[in-house]
Amino acid sequence: MSIVLRARGLTKRYGDMVVVNDVNFDVPAGGVMSLIGPNGAGKSTIFNLLTGYTPLNAGSVEFAGQMLNGMPTHRIAALGIARAFQIARPFRGLSVRDNVRVGALFGRAGARDVEASIDLALRLANLADLAEEPASTLTIGQLRKLELARAVAARPTLLLADEPLAGLVPAESDEILASFRDMVNHGMTILLVEHDMPAVMQISDHVVVLEAGAFIAEGRPEVVARNPRVIEAYLGQELPQ
Amino acid sequence: MLRPLLLLLAATVLLALLPLVLGPFHVRVGLSMFLSAGLALSWYILGGFAAYYSFGHTVFIGIGAFAAALSRDLWVSGHWAGQLLLGVGSAACVSAAVAALIAWPILRLRGHYFTIAMLAVALVCAEAVSAFPVFQGAMGVSLPNIAPPGMRVERFYYWAALALLLVTVVIAMLIARARLGYGLYAIREDEDAAMMLGVPTTRLKITAFIISAALTGSFGALYAFNLGYITTDSVFRGALSLEMIVHALVGGMGSIFGPIIGAVAMTALTKVALADMLEYHLAITGLVVIVVVIAAPEGLIGVVGRWRRNRRHRGRNP
């Protein structure tokens, strides 16, 4: 299986605090890969590093045959990495369609096929019915979908989704998981950070587990779930009998 | 795009015919409205689309005015159309060049910091134009009357300002629907999120700034032609910066027609309704701004929009 993104020796320090410590992973093409770990494991920081939002202290990121180190955020986005934020950041003054249009105009598709990209993104995120509504009137669940649609409209090869299910009711979560499957069927790769473990186990093809900024395990979800180090990281040590 | 363009053309033709039936005073009021509207709309290209409020935009009025006056040797002889185009053209070029020069350092600043930086830029440029003899800012420069022989001066500048306003409106309409426009809206709404979506924020802000400066400078040149004699104090004026912002605010920041409506309304108020109490008009302007900001934060255009929505609503549920 081919690799979309290769992360080597990712390291981020804030003063003496090492928040990401020499983490390596590959994101295989075409599927859903999840980054999991307890709070403070460094998952969101890794997203910031991959998108160039925060600079790396050491290590490298290779995507589509290019090194992303030191590249500005907007160029990384234009290469085909899109990010959907956990806390939705809609353009409140614009309609849903115009929000998605920004993603399409400045994404990998560039100025070509803008309308087609918008329609596809709205359809994949189940937002076509709300296209003409102002973004300021959407509910939390709808905003989360808008966040995804805007990212998908850029026609990314890799979508980084930061806790897309947090705070949603099960019906909304199921809808978003179904969207992810559709996106993968359209040739996208998804890198997911999510705390909802049943959802992660159900949707992921591959899981990487972090704890306190360091790599501890990876593999297929059912294998990782039985790994004693992973269980320890999540539940603490088993009590001695 | 076609329907608004045709409407715009019809409105322009109608406005162009007005001087034939109006007296000189009202033609001057019209000219003043076009200059204010054009300046407010030029400011809006960065201030409205991207919400980057320049508090020092008078710097481009001043630069445009002095560029037109000091390039006199270039255009002083010749046909009136050539004189007008060369005067306005050199104003646009010099303003754009100065904007390009200062854009990189000051547009990496965000929001309020940009506002403050522009205030400083305006002060520095005004001082420089006054202090260096080559600019003749302290003494003043005069511009010859370039109206074609036989045509009344106020009519000539009325038509010239109307033409330049039309060009400005078309440019603003094109930007509003283009990739540049959507990038600027995204910057206005959330600059970080825009960056994450691939919007090259600094580059787009610089582009908008240069376009805005070139247009402001062009109106500055017309302003200078109309005055006939300019000094630093008459064209580098903080009050002019403030007027552009007030007009956009009063008219409404949601549409390119907001600044135009605001400029027309405020000019009508200060130049016609309050013509006999010049000493109070600044105070009354201030009062109007306070009332608008409290009662109609979306400006006059927002009030009209709300009224139309309500009417449609009532129509549906009688």
3D architecture notes:
Chain A is α/β, with parallel strands linked by helices and 241 residues long. Chain A has one domain (3-235): P-loop containing nucleotide triphosphate hydrolases (Rossmann fold), CATH 3.40.50.300. Chain A contains 9 helices and 10 strands. In chain A, the strands form 2 sheets. A 6-stranded mixed beta sheet of chain A has the order 6-7-8-3-9-10, sandwiched between helices. In chain A, helix 4 runs antiparallel to helix 5 (140-152). The model of chain A has no long low-confidence stretch (mean pLDDT 90). Chain B has a domain at 25-237. In chain B, helix 3 packs across helix 5 and helix 7 (153-177) packs across helix 8. Chain B is built from 15 helices and 2 strands. By secondary structure, chain B is an all-alpha fold. At the A-B interface, helix 2 and helix 3 of A face helix 8 and helix 9 of B.
Largest sheet data of chain A: 6 strands, mixed
CATH architecture of chain A: 3-Layer(aba) Sandwich
In terms of structural class, how would the helical and strand content of chain B be classed?
mainly alpha
What percentage of residues of chain B falls in helices of 4 or more residues? over 70%
Uncertain stretches of chain A = none
Q: What's the CATH class label of chain A? A: Alpha Beta
User: What is the H/E order of chain B?
Assistant: HHHHHHEHHHHEHHHHH
